[in-house]
Amino acid sequence: MLSQLKWRVAILAAVAFVFTAVAWQTASADEDLVHIVKGTVKSVGKASKTMLVKTADGTEHTIKWTDKTTMEGGKDAGEDVREGSKVTVKYTEKAGEKTAVGVKTAAKATAKAVQ
Asked: CA 6 to CA 1: how far, in whole Å?
């Protein structure tokens, strides 16, 4: 009788371990997922290092940048991204906060064609 109880406890512990491992891997994978958004910069908060990007369907995304954020065609997202700029932003999202990995601004000729 005691032997059966030990086996049941061991099996339940193994099952709990497997479920915990799978849940941890899923959470890790979600944090590293990179999203892309294209749109027009509606506002830039240099002090807070954030930009508000509005997509063609009207959705607005508040995205922050860091010193590690790369800027294609420029040096710094805080200096190169301006209101009205057409941008493509690659970002990660963690706990509901979007952080830019890279920002690309459209060339002026491309931006006019997109309008």
From this structure: 9
Residue type, 102: G
Per-residue CA distances from 57 to 39, 69, 71 (Å): 9, 26, 25
Among all chains, which residue has been given the structure tokens 């710094």?
76
pLDDT digits (tens, 9 = 90+) for 27-84: 555 556 899 999 999 999 999 999 999 999 999 999 999 988 888 865 566 667 889 9
pLDDT tens column, 10-22? 787 777 766 666 6
SS3 category, 56 = coil
Q: Residue 80: give its domain's CATH number.
A: 2.40.50.320
